[in-house]
Amino acid sequence: MSCNPFKPKKAEWDKDFTRSKIVAKDPHSSPVYKAANPSAKNFNLFKVDGNLIHSTTQGKCDFLLIEFQRHQDPTKDCIALHSYFIELKGTDLKKATEQVYQSMLVLHPTIATSIPHARIVLKKVHTLAVNSSEVKRLTAFVKQKGGTYAQYSFNDNSTPEVL
């Protein structure tokens, strides 16, 4: 059974993940987000850009990975536990953080029971951007809600994040 909190929008999602590996990849971008799911938790991966957010002017991240718990009563919706807002980007960390932040502002109210996390995967990180006001604002936002911020430099052999 899948969990789709965006039902009115008829959101498309990749799969109902319970398998051990989760991969978020955009065919137009080389960075890839990899996660390990050793406990077989329930996840759904949603495409955000052009699916959950259609605006051409609104900043939006690439993917939203939601960990959910099924409700004991099958007539009730599932409960979102954690939400991972994922941006795959070349080198522009400031733009990536802004896209994740804007996506959180739009989508997190729909999954307010979840703890939001920001994940940014870059081909290359410019050192000066790491301490930018955009990164600090996003970090403070997720920390205030109990979440985490992480950025990764993409490498085909990179170790997956354990969820």
What features would you describe in this structure?
The structure is a single chain. The protein has two helices and nine strands. The protein has one domain. The strands form two sheets. A six-stranded mixed sheet has the order 1-4-5-6-7-8. A three-stranded mixed sheet has the order 2-3-9, with no helix packed on it. The chain is an alpha/beta fold. It is globular, with a radius of gyration of 15 Å. Helices cover 17% and strands 33% of the residues. The mean pLDDT is 84. Helix 1 packs parallel to helix 2. Strand 7, helix 2 and strand 8 form a beta-alpha-beta unit.
β-strand percent reads 25-35%
Q: Could you report the average pLDDT, rounded to the nearest whole number?
A: 84
Order of helices and strands: EEEEEEHEHEE
Q: How many domains, in number, for the residues? A: 1
Structural class: alpha/beta
Please work out how many helical segments DSSP would assign: 2
Percent helix among the residues?
10-25%
Strand line-up in the sheet with most strands: 1-4-5-6-7-8
- Shape from CA axes? globular
DSSP summary, beta strand count: 9
- As residue ranges, the low-confidence spans are none
